[in-house]
């Protein structure tokens, strides 16, 4: 294998959460008087941290979101996860193979630790991902598209950035990985390929990731 560490994004890559979380976010922003469609939310916030939502609303409307916004979004999102969240098709096979082959891997997500852990417990992925493999935008000063999160994950896993590959499905994540000096495989099951055009490789099916990692 050409890499010493595989870094997975979480939402949309490990768990099929983007549709759920962006539906929740769009509805809540609209409820607060900031009309947002599901498509708007995917375009503007997919792959970003909660700070990006605050910054965007502030820039567009000159208003602050309410103090309870973060906790309310989290509560509504976790409720949706508990009802409907599933792992991304094929990702269990990928994790099983990496673990069996002794390939180091971890997760670096814009989501909060509580949300990531909940998504893994709900889908059963906590069997393959413990706390030592989990990194959040909460751990660093800036979330994606800044490279800080991926660099933090590499340092924590004792791996040079150039020996890492990131698996991402958002333009913000691809930009962050490239800025960190890492290769990045863009997962196009949900995101149109042209939006991830800067990625080192593109793949539409999680079953194809293992072949990419071996090449």
TrEMBL record:
EC number: 3.1.3.-
Keywords linked to the UniProt accession: Hydrolase, Magnesium, Metal-binding
One Pfam family recorded for the sequence: Hydrolase
Listed cofactors: Mg(2+)
Parts of the chain that traverse the membrane: none
Family statement: Belongs to the HAD-like hydrolase superfamily. CbbY/CbbZ/Gph/YieH family.
Protein name: 6-phosphogluconate phosphatase
Organism per entry: Streptomyces jeddahensis
Taxonomic classification: Bacteria, Bacillati, Actinomycetota, Actinomycetes, Kitasatosporales
Gene this chain is encoded by: yieH
């Amino acid at each position: 294998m050409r890499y010493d560490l595989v870094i997975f994004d979480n939402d949309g890559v490990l768990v099929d959460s983007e549709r759920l979380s962006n539906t929740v976010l769009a509805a809540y922003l609209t409820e607060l008087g900031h009309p947002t469609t599901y498509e708007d939310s995917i375009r503007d916030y997919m792959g970003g941290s909660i700070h990006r939502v605050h910054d965007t609303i502030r820039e567009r409307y000159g208003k602050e979101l309410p103090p309870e916004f973060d906790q309310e979004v989290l509560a509504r999102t976790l409720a949706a996860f508990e009802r409907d969240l599933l792992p991304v098709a094929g990702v269990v096979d990928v994790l099983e193979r990496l673990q069996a082959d002794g390939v180091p891997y971890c997760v670096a997500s814009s989501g909060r630790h509580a949300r990531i852990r909940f998504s893994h417990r709900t889908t059963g992925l906590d069997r393959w991902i413990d706390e030592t493999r989990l990194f959040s935008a909460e751990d660093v000063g800036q979330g994606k598209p800044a490279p800080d999160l991926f660099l933090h994950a590499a340092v924590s896993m004792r791996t040079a950035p150039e020996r890492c590959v990131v698996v991402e499905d958002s333009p913000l994540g691809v930009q962050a990985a490239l800025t960190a000096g890492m290769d990045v495989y863009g997962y196009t099951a949900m995101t149109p390929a042209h939006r991830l055009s800067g990625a080192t490789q593109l793949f539409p099916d999680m079953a194809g990731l293992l072949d990419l990692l071996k090449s």
